[in-house]
Amino acid sequence: MMTTRKWKLTSKDIEEPISEEVKNTLEEIKIALTYGEVIGLPTETVYGLAGDARNAEAIHKIFVAKGRPGDNPLIVHIHDTKQMETFVEPVHENVKKLMEAFWPGPISFILPLKGDYISSNVVAELDSIAVRMPSHPVGRKVLQYADIPLAAPSANLSGKPSPTSSDHVYEDLDGKIYGVIESEPAEYGLESTVLDCTQFPYRIARPGAISITQLREVLKEDIERHRDTSERPISPGMKYKHYAPRQPLTVFFGNMNAGSKALPYDKNKKTGVIAPETMREYFKEDVVFVSLCKDEASYREASKNLYAALRFMDSSDVEEIFIYGFDMNDETEALMNRIYKATGNTVIRG
């Protein structure tokens, strides 16, 4: 088993002028990536497991470390749109508008693939490729310094909750990857919006922080909403169960004032509940309660904390978990998409 290296790089560390120590760290990371190693990379959505998208060996290491199905494509991360010219067909003016509006940021675009510059196992033999430009200062600095396109799915074991901190990456991948950058936790906490621009009207392949309303406001044209599908995935998160702890997880809706009476607890099992802090008082003392956010309207906070809450439960001794379901709207679509994926659509309505 390899020893996973740790590099500490914060946003403050990379402010100009950067120190020689930081330059040496960036150089070490660049060399590792150039020689086909994979690393835990901070982004504003979740931590990514990054490797040279041109290098088949590096991409193989990503799939092996994660235990990821081979037909599940990866998103390629860049720091400049000029990088796309080597592997993406010329983009439509509408796509350029969206990129100008939301990049760098938490959105990926599925675009027509060009040539064989990118390793074929990045795109799972598809004729399209998902591309993203992250906004996390340290993630961007690494992309700029290495100056190579990086394939970077979430840095977790496949199927488990995604990592929003370097500690989460260590939990899953210590000894399986070359190194991890210790930096600020993810700002958003959910994976990027993925917009399929290979069809018209454009369609959301995976909901994220950038909502359909925001996209329509920029484009002034129709965009199709996300729909679950069993077809061959063109984007991560479309086909397989994701984000799940090891215990059975059920989402509950409705008025929970009744607390323990409202949920079908198994008296012989230790139970966990993930819900807004305002609901804590309604549950019996022997329930393991994890606060997801301040209240039912704190959608952004809930999104940021979701995976950490699931990971806490996953590492606890609870045997069953119930999680609060938020009312569906533009702001909660991505959050509820991840919750449903984690539960397998097991639902209780109060």
UniProtKB/TrEMBL annotation:
One of its GO terms (biological process) is regulation of translational fidelity. Its EC number is 2.7.7.87. It catalyses: L-threonine + hydrogencarbonate + ATP = L-threonylcarbamoyladenylate + diphosphate + H2O. L-threonine binds at T45, R68, H77, R132, S192. Residues 23-210 form the YrdC-like domain. Keywords: ATP-binding, Cytoplasm, Nucleotide-binding, Nucleotidyltransferase, Transferase, tRNA processing. SUPFAM superfamilies: YrdC/RibB (SSF55821). GO terms for cellular component: cytoplasm. Belongs to the SUA5 family. This is Threonylcarbamoyl-AMP synthase. The lineage of its organism: Bacteria, Bacillati, Bacillota, Bacilli, Bacillales. The gene is ywlC.
